[in-house]
Amino acid sequence: MASSAAQIHGLGVGGGISSTSSRKPSFSFAPRSVFFGQNLRKTTATFLKHTNNTSRRGYSTGPVRIVNEKVVGIDLGTTNSAVAAMEGGKPTIVTNAEGQRTTPSVVAYTKNGDRLVGQIAKRQAVVNPENTFFSVKRFIGRKMSEVDEESKQVSYKVVRDENGNVKLECPAIGKQFAAEEISAQVLRKLVDDASKFLNDKVTKAVVTVPAYFNDSQRTATKDAGRIAGLEVLRIINEPTAASLAYGFERKSNETILVFDLGGGTFDVSVLEVGDGVFEVLSTSGDTHLGGDDFDKRVVDWLAGSFKRDEGIDLLKDKQALQRLTETAEKAKMELSSLTQANISLPFITATADGPKHIEATLTRAKFEELCSDLLDRLKTPVENSLRDAKLSFKDLDEVILVGGSTRIPAVQELVKKLTGKDPNVTVNPDEVVALGAAVQAGVLAGDVSDIVLLDVSPLSLGLETLGGVMTKIIPRNTTLPTSKSEVFSTAADGQTSVEINVLQGEREFVRDNKSLGSFRLDGIPPAPRGVPQIEVKFDIDANGILSVAAVDKGTGKKQDITITGASTLPSDEVERMVSEADKFAKEDKEKRDAIDTKNQADSVVYQTEKQLKELGEKVPAPVKEKVEAKLQELKDAIAGGSTQGMKDAMAALNQEVMQLGQSLYNQPGAAPGAGAGPGPAPGSEAGPSDSSSKGPDGDVIDADFTDSK
What we know:
It is found in: Plastid, Chloroplast stroma. There is one protein chain. With 709 residues, this protein is α+β, with helices and mostly antiparallel strands. The protein folds into four domains: 8-35 and 42-59 and 456-569, Sandwich (Substrate Binding Domain Of DNAk, Chain A, domain 1), CATH 2.60.34.10; 70-289 and 378-454, ATPase, nucleotide binding domain (Nucleotidyltransferase, domain 5, 2-Layer Sandwich); 291-374, ATPase, substrate binding domain, subdomain 4 (Actin, Chain A, domain 4, Alpha-Beta Complex), CATH 3.90.640.10; 600-684, Substrate Binding Domain Of Dnak, Chain:A, Domain 2 (Up-down Bundle). The chain is built from 15 helices and 32 strands. Strand 10 (157-160) and strand 11 (166-170) form a beta hairpin. 45% of the residues are buried. Residues 1-67, 673-678 and 682-701 have low confidence and may be disordered.
């Protein structure tokens, strides 16, 4: 019998090439002999012929999923994130616990092991740079070999694990996090805040990703949702989401270009919108370009000037780097409305001669000079997207700007020069993606009808062929969902398995594209070469995520294909992270409950002491002694720090305070409603009152009692 690792070839080829080699298995497509792998004879062909059994489903919304809970839309951004939900038939931004409409995508751990998320984490970044994680979206779903440059731009340590995956080191708690875990903590805060805002538990969401995210990054984003305890119903592209928000109630047909420059990524999409149909014609972008890169140019300029003057490299000082980064971002934002920004960084570092400071003025012209090559990089994706859509600039009706970085005047001027149109400013660039995600969430929840979304695959999907060439199977800008099948057979007698390498990208050679992983097909029944007929189906779903299935057409038996490397996290690791996230959530809830209980207990002590002082001699001595005894028990419980102890002590004190009030009304000559007798302690329920009061003339005045909460 031939080795189980052998070549296979497409059906319809007479003879085929047999092999007894034990090298890596290879295969090819019909009707010509196209072999995959590096170890085959050079007499084989190097081209590919597709079969015609491609099937495409037209609507990426898929079958409507009816769900009971509220479904929200989440824009999980590089620098800031936002949540929105359908309220009263319209998408509405959900404010967070701090009352803000966006939440910084920042997570930090203090030296005490406390976890901070959002604005509170961002505020302490300068004093805790090594344990504050920001711009994590740049690392999600990527291998360490892909993020060499990005890892140098952050103040925390980015390391490689034994599988080549990215890990983020947290010295404060002595742990390494996957990027998915940090993103999950941001998602958890967004969902918790949304649940409070909507007064309804949120467990389902639509999450947006850059249009140019590959399969690994999309899968990793879904993993982050799962770790956060969230069911991600759909992953949709950010420019597509923006178009949903823009065209939600528009009836006229328009061709629009969405220019999305976020904190860490850049996307361009061309769409036709109108009458409830949103069809993406093409998409292009750059996942290594965003507002952070503009900040970095200012940081490098400031650090370079300081090094020339003082001989000190601030980029090696993590605290100084964090201060420079925050200052650069502020300067960039100021230059959107001013022609120059004054930069002042006192005590940026110190030497034996004393403290050192930075005082500088950055003009808008200098800023544009520093970022000139970044501005040039914005042009190509715009031109590519229009070319792929087979349109010219004059065919565009509107240009929509998305992402906070589109507020940079030079970016707006570039868009105007390229397209010949003034950008549409009717949408908020910080919120429009979340609003569009909420519309899609409404579609999936059954709250929104008459919306049809036709999105496309951002990158081509293909296989490695002879000579390290990538052969494309599903080209980019193919409407999603889509599937493609190819029929294979064996090229050697008794062959029982085959392994292939699936790639995503646009370059000609394997080394320049992203490997999604190895697909190993096992369990092929031993048979003469060319006899087995194995149909392998590549399926890209509405989320843009790839799945693969294989069926032996002769026996009808479905073969198992295990995908390795498609996600940076194996399933058991995801399960561990889910369990750990639940544990953290429980701990966070307990900490919050402890803080709230302590605050309530302090308030009860203050209010009770105040009431006793105001009532003075009116309180019978035995009653006062009991209240003071319970009051002391509550103070002791507060000092002890037991949450349950404080709750029990408050309940006991409340009973005595109720008795105090009753004793005042029972005193001789006490009229109902007279005096300032205390009600229940703060935090307890007040019962309705039937008492009436005498008016000045002795008449009875009816009063309505209102229980205010």
